[in-house]
Amino acid sequence: MTLTLHSLGGAGTVTGSRHLVENDGRRIMIDCGLFQGYKSLRERNWKPFPVSPKSIDAIILTHAHLDHSGYLPKLVREGFEGPIFCSSATADLCEILLKDSAFIAEKDAFLANKHKYTKHVPALPLYTIKDAEAALKQLRPIPFHKEVELPGGGHVQLRRAGHILGAANAELRWGGKKMVFSGDIGRYDDPFMLDPEAVEAADYVIVESTYGDRTHPKNDPMDALGDVIEKTVQRGGTLVIPAFAVGRAQLIMYYLWKLKQAGRIKIVPIFLDSPMAINATDLLCRHLDDHRLSPEICKQSCNIATYLREVEDSKRITRDTMPKVVIAASGMLTGGRVLHHLKAFGQDERNTILFSGYQAGGTRGEKILNGADSVKMFGQWFPIRAQIKSLPALSAHADSDEILKWLSGFKNAPARTFIVHGEPKAADALRMRIDEELGWNSTVVDPVDRYHLESHTP
Which of 180, 295, 307, 417 would you label with 170, given CA atoms 20 to 30 Å apart? Predict the structure, then answer.
């Protein structure tokens, strides 16, 4: 028997996580994400899948973020018929995220055709809401810590990874070997999410490296957020926070609730302008085992903002010149209502655009954070004159030290550690730390290579 690992995405980049494990002609894939960011990466979403989708026996999702789940509707439309195993909260979040992703894809194609700012005639969505609904029918929620048999003879067990609701690392036992996929590792001692759970043993570890070359600031993110709000309001400006609808938006609302409790932002109105983030926020109090907040604090922090569900309400806020805080998706300015707020408020130096998480290369967020004085939206260029701030301490991703802490939970060195889900510089920096501090055999995964793992018939 031949056991192999081939990363069809999430290698050499932080997007498009798709890790294919093959054993004696059977196939299991861990994650099924969208490529985001640079055009050359996004175009990979449109290319034929490297293997027949119908030949994949099952998929395991580590969590619901689109760079790990967002390709599912297209894969199902092209023939994947197997079960998709994930945690209960991940299944609930996927119902929100995948439908929203499809809605945006359809809307963008409609607007591109209507206003003729496309080279493709006609512009088509990557997938439709109907495709997303078909994929959702194949989700199979499983409990944490319970070993579940997979088609093809393997077994999977999920452990909590922190990061966002339902996030997991996945232990795959197959071909007599144990492989652990980290997924996205969360922060330790986070006030909101649970700590990543330790894993004691594995033959092979596949670990993310998003922040493999840096550590997060040690300053208090709530205090820093309060400072940004106070200075923006003093200028008579509006604070726009592009936030990932799942995870980051809820954490920011918790900090805003704490700031209100402390009396620092008593009269500043707060708006959550993202139907997806609103729906994800509603799930917080349904999945109390997935985070640290008590039922009462969960309810209070979720009620700190005025929810803007209707488009007309969102438009009203863009016309409002009074100081306020607006939280809107998407977190990297790749689409969604936040673009209308960027258009409305990004051109005035009294206002602030505050980035609260990782900005993948090629996204509008990355360009603005690196000093771009204009960005293209809706087929036009718009100047950026607002103050630009970043709070990396708000990140939901483990930094380099925290990744090493999670890896140190293994009692014995794995035969090999594969480093994925990071830009080349970050991935190689993590490889060097693993080699030097843990003494493990580690490899930065190349998307071209298929890695052969030892296996035997159970």
Answer: 295
Burial of 428 (0-12, 13-18, 19+ CB in 10 A): middle
Q: Mind listing the pLDDT tens digit for each residue in 104-145?
A: 899 888 888 887 776 777 889 999 999 999 999 999 999 999
3-class state of residue 109 by DSSP:
helix
Element (H, E) at 352: strand 352-355
Q: What is the pLDDT of residue 457?
A: 41
Domain boundaries, the chain: 3-214+396-453, 221-394
- What pLDDT is recorded for position 366? 94
Would you state the structure tokens that stand for residue 130, as one six-digit string? 């109907």
* Tokens matching residue 26: 């059977």
| pLDDT confidence bin for 455, thresholds 50/70/90 | low
Q: Tokens 């051109």 label which residue?
A: 347
Give the distance from CA 297 to its chain's centroid: 25
CATH topology of domain 221-394: Rossmann fold (3.40.50)
- CA angle 69–70–73, rounded 5-degree value: 105
Contacts of 430 (CB under 8 A, 6+ apart): 207, 209, 212, 213, 400, 403, 419, 422
Give the homologous superfamily in CATH for domain 3-214+396-453.
Ribonuclease Z/Hydroxyacylglutathione hydrolase-like (3.60.15.10)
